[in-house]
Amino acid sequence: MSKQDKKTYSNGNNHQLRWGAPGTASATIAAGLVFENVSHDYDGVTSVRDMSLSIAPGEILCLLGHSGCGKTTLMRIAAGVERQSHGRVLINGSEVAGDDIFLPPEKRGVGLMFQDYALFPHMSILANVMFGLTNMSRNEAKSAAMGALGRVGLTDYADDYPHALSGGEQQRVALARALVPRPGILLMDEPFSGLDKRLRDNVRDETLAVIRETRATCIIVTHDPEEAMRMGDKIALMRQGRLVQHGSASDLYNHPADLFAARFFSELNQLEGRANSDGVETALGLLPGDGLETGAAVDVCVRPQGVILGRPGLCGVPGRIRAKRFVGEVELLTIVVDGMTNLLQARVRAGTPWEQGMDVSVTTDPKDVLVFPR
């Protein structure tokens, strides 16, 4: 197949080119990154508040939160594109930004990949990838850039321009350009947000494989909790400029620090409860709750998949199915339960016998019950 045929097949028929051979990305020496009590503001409006966070060499951290919570600002502070108003940034234990020092981006050993990829439209794909290799001879830079393009499967497009590539292919070029100088730290700002869902999973998995091969420390900014859980060794959840919780995906999902963190990772049925010596009294009966002061008012959250249905008259509380919706592998049920202000949402495997209008008994799976002080 000729190069022109490959272009037509790729861009005309929505077929994505294969990535390069695994294990061929150039490795780097990973660097540790530390934020110490970092704060930042834009014209008096605080964007990051007293943020302390450590990322180990070679670790992939997903910086997670809603738009405007300070994720991108923190990443730009790490890169040296923004300067914090308070606190310090350290790379491998050396201060790169503080009260008396501020190293520019090019002296930090940090690669930055922007959300819109920021490719130069007037430059070829090869020239885009070579752009930051100023400390090499032209032949060395070209060889390194072609190697990076080979790993992302785009050597045949080296002489083309960004407009000739699809969004997914432009993302690959941006990745190659960020990695070719072999940075110790790679910063990626929502790198997959511009891709359609069919393409996103594949590009994300391939990108993660390339990052693992390079062994670089990596921060990935995202607002998608599933993406954070799939990609990150650790997750740092932010809200209004502050760190809410930092840990593994399992930590944040199973042991959320508060109601905000719990809601970020799953849908929840929320109901009121009151603690006693045996657990928490709720409209769904006595639910588990340890370490609570007797009589304390609490918020109880039950994940939809933790709602268990049985025949009427069995253990649990009575309910009636108000609605049923088929969504593929699962069915979503809406249930009326006496004493609950809101309708109870349940998620069950498709093909179960429950139908709209049926009376049921309702119990819960303890692992899907979360309790927070009111």
Rg on CA atoms, Å: 25 Å
Q: Mean pLDDT, nearest integer?
A: 91
Number of distinct beta strands: 20
Return residue spans where pLDDT drops below 50 for at least 5 consecutive residues: 1-15
Secondary-structure element order, N to C: HEEEHEEEHHHEHEHEEHHEEEEEEEEEE
CA-based shape: globular
Separation of the first and last Cα atoms: 65 Å
CATH topology name of the largest domain: Rossmann fold
Number of helices: 9
Helix share bin: 10-25%
- Specify the CATH architecture of the largest domain: 3-Layer(aba) Sandwich
CATH superfamily of the largest domain: P-loop containing nucleotide triphosphate hydrolases
List the helices and strands and how they pair.
Blueprint: H1 3-12, E1 33-42, E2 45-55, E3 60-64, H2 71-79, E4 86-91, E5 94-97, E6 110-113, H3 125-130, H4 138-151, H5 167-179, E7 185-189, H6 197-214, E8 217-222, H7 225-231, E9 234-239, E10 242-247, H8 249-254, H9 259-265, E11 269-276, E12 279-282, E13 285-287, E14 297-302, E15 307-310, E16 317-326, E17 330-337, E18 344-349, E19 359-364, E20 369-373
Parallel strand pairs: 3-8, 3-9, 6-7, 7-8
Antiparallel strand pairs: 1-2, 1-4, 4-5, 9-10, 11-12, 11-14, 12-13, 14-20, 15-19, 16-17, 16-19, 17-18
